[in-house]
Amino acid sequence: QVLVSFPPLRNEEAVRVLRGRMKGIQGHCNSCYMDAALFSLFSCTSVLDSMLFKPFPLCDRNVQNILRDEIVNPLRKTGFVMARSVMHLREQLTEKGQCSSFTTAEKDPEEFLNLIMHHILGIEPLLKLQSGGQEEQDCYCYQIFMDKQEDLVVPDVQQLVEHSFLSSDLKLVEIPSCFIIQMPRFGKEYKMFSKIIPSLELDITDLLLDSPRECCVCGDVATLECS
Hints:
The structure is a single chain. By secondary structure, the protein is mostly helical. The chain folds into 2 domains: about 10-120, Cysteine proteinases (Cathepsin B, Chain A); about 125-220, no CATH class. Helices cover about 35% and strands about 10% of the residues. The protein contains 7 helices and 7 strands. It has helices at about 10-20, 30-40, 50-55, 60-80, 85-95, 110-120, 155-170, and strands at about 25, 80, 125-130, 135-140, 140-145, 170, 180. It has a 3-stranded antiparallel beta sheet. The protein has a two-stranded parallel ribbon with strand order 1-2. Strands 5-7 form a two-stranded parallel sheet.
């Protein structure tokens, strides 16, 4: 346990602490879905640090303490988290989630995020989506669904998000405080792309519902949108 809190790693400090052998979160017994999610959410950003400190109404303080003191703080301090720390969290999730396979089986990252954010910590949904003018949908992360695109051999995240929103006729109802995106490259059996280039910034202008945008013909405020 590391009981002192550390800020997220940035720039040269992130490279120094996180690069090399025995760095990151140690995998064990199909934990990769959780290891990758936890690393993405906490290693280099503080946007979800409220999960570690805030006493939410439904919050399980034991799970919160494990997440903060055994995983996030060691990751930010030394760049390494032992597999037994993640297993400790998985055991607690198994106990709280009415699912006996959290300690042994590979899971969908969305299932893990929904369990820990909604059922255990009681956090409000991070995303509001609308599809084809229907009712709003609340969720914690967005999983990219799309058909195979022959022209996208090594895509970046920006391209994948835009293609996925377009093919699903989706819009963001509002700018999200945190936009967690699950790539179409997980699981043992099938990966749609061999590699995906991270987009260091994401332009969501065209993904926002009723967002004023410039007409590509005349330059005035657009009144129509062609998919």
